[in-house]
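FAQ: What does the model actually see?

It sees only this:
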Amino acid sequence: MAKIFSHFLYLILCLYGIIYKVKKIIIIFILVLWVCPFLSKAQEMSEPINILIVPGHDNQVWGSQYGNIKEADMNQVLATQIYDLLKKDKKFKVWITRDNFKYTKEFADYFLKNKKDIIAFKKSARKETQNKLDSGALINKSGGVSHNSVNAETSVKLYGINKWANENKIDAIINIHFNDYPRATKWSIGKYKGFVIYMPDKQMANAIESSNLAKSIFSQLSKKYNTSTYVKEKGGLITDQELISLGASGTLNKEVNSVLIEYGYIYQKIFRDSATRYQAYKDMAF
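And it is asked to produce this:
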């Protein structure tokens, strides 16, 4: 009888040991499931945010002009100040497409070496977009603010920037511009003023986060500056599906947020005098 009891006790102890081990495994498993998302999130937060600053236009096509002041130069100065500010912060990894008033070597080389691939990228994206329009999967929302057409060389650069941004996992593209409206001469002062921020149309893959970024920038600029008085830019936050810089024809991945900021009309009083203009660059960049 004692022998049977001892065997029975041994069996119970073995079962208890197995159950105890199983419990430990289950607890460890649950803890791993609970902790891993936090570790993953912490890892994500520790990685820098990749930002590309794009000072609009260049020395060949300089955009708008008031007197001897060219938009491309204004874009460059303001963009460089933003670049310098962000570069000091370890939370960001920052690139800029132009410095010292010319394309950086990285981008100049990219446009040159990848021209055929960029053109193919553009054609494929446009074809896919046309198919979506034909099928009704995409609704054309033209009729808003009209934009100047671009030549073949500029097109390669703009689509090339988008292609590069996709390949380099850029989180946000900030396009820097100053606005204009047709005037009699380059010395004429126009009737509109104020800033506006363009963001991707709601149908575009990168629309939601780009919209959040645009609204965040808007909330800061509107503390000191008035929004555009041009009726089609009323409110200062405009969606657009035609601007290449925002990912027209689906040329920016969902993860690549992009906004285009028109910081004001080039002929505004604040920009006509060099002293107030350079102070404006500093304030706007901040």
